[in-house]
Structure formats: C-alpha cells, structure tokens
Amino acid sequence: MRRTSWLLLIPLLAGCGLLAHGPDIRRYEVAGSAMEPTLNAGQRVTVRLTKAGTYEPARGDIVVFRAPDSWGAGGPDATLIKRVVAVGGDTVACCDPSGRIDLNGTPLDEPYVAENSPLEMPSVADCGSRRFDPVKVAPEQLFLVGDNRLVSVDSRCHGPVPVAAVIGVIDR
C-alpha cells in the first residue's frame, strides 16, 4: 500500500517565543517525506519569512505555505513545504515523452526528484499518477510539488496555490 505525505512543518518553540535569528527568520522541523531527499523528516530548516505582498515567486524556490482549505491538509493552520515549479502565466503539464514535467513547452530537468510517481495510476485524486493535464497558472498563483513525487500530495491533484499563502522561503 502506497503512503502519501503532506510534509507538515512544525515550528520550533523555545519558552514562549519561536527560535529565530531575527524578526524575518523562523526555524521549522520537517515532519514528513514529501521533499526527500532535499529535506528529510526531522531536519530543521531556516525559513526567510515574507511580508504580505512582498514575495516575488521564482521557479525552484522551496516555500512554506498555508495549505488552502481545499487541500484538506489538517485545518486552517496547516503549514506545508513544496517546490515552486510554475508561476503565474506559466503552463505546466506532465508529461513529455520521457516522463518529465513540461513547463511552457520545455521539459524540466529535475535532478532533485527522488522517487517519481508512476506515469499511470488508477486514482489521480491522491496525486498518485505523475500524469496531469495542462494547467495555465493564473496570475498570483503557484504550482507547487514535492521532490518525492511518489508520496507527495500537491498541486498535481489540488491545483495551484495563491502567492499570498506563502509564509516564507527556505534558505539553502
């Protein structure tokens, strides 16, 4: 039986305050496997916080975000982490003849993908299949996926996420 992973993040607490290196930095502990091998369960990550309206999305960023209610990720305070694959104005689909994600007509080279999903699976509802129809990402939206596609639950089945949902960017 295949397991899926939301890759929730746990803020690290110290007394009454968050462990931080300044007002714009927060530390989290990764609590899942959806971003392996880039980020592993139990690993602590530093997140550069974004102020409302200041995050300028970039493909390849690893972001912490509040999951939209439609994702069913555990309530309104669920924080997840995924990689930005497409930004507003992009068209993303899977797959090209080699099984790679196609971004604006160009196959992506994704050396960070650990264990890709099969091309075909009976249930797309749980992000099992790697294959998805073209998605035109609307302005102020992001198409987010996990690096461990075999277990990641992400934009492949739940659709794009508003840029405004981004809490911060992982410093790597």
Walk me through what this model shows:
This protein is an all-beta fold. It has a single domain, classed as Umud Fragment, subunit A, CATH 2.10.109. The protein contains one helix and 14 strands; from the N terminus they run E-E-E-E-E-E-E-E-E-E-E-E-H-E-E. The chain has one helix at 155-158; strands at 8-11, 13-14, 17-18, 25-31, 44-49, 62-66, 79-87, 91-94, 101-103, 106-107, 132-136, 141-145, 161-162, 166-170. The strands form three sheets. The protein has an eight-stranded antiparallel sheet with strand order 1-4-5-14-6-7-12-13, with no helix packed on it. Strands 10-9-8-11 form a four-stranded antiparallel sheet, with no helix packed on it. Strand 9 and strand 10 (106-107) form a beta hairpin. The termini are far apart. 37% of the residues are buried. Mean pLDDT is 81; it is low at 1-7 and 12-21.
CATH level-4 homologous superfamily = Umud Fragment, subunit A
The CATH architecture classification is Ribbon
Question: Within the CATH hierarchy, at the fold level, what is the topology?
Answer: Umud Fragment, subunit A
Tell me what portion of residues adopts beta-strand conformation.
Answer: 35-45%
Topology pattern, helix = H, strand = E: EEEEEEEEEEEEHEE
Q: Roughly how many Å apart are the termini?
A: 33 Å
Major β-sheet strand ordering = 1-4-5-14-6-7-12-13
Which regions have little confidence, pLDDT < 50, spanning 5+ residues?
1-7, 12-21
| Count of distinct strands | 14
Class from secondary-structure proportions:
mainly beta
* CA-atom Rg in angstroms: 16 Å
Helix fraction, binned, reads under 10%
Mean pLDDT: 81
Regarding quaternary structure, how should these chains be classified? single chain
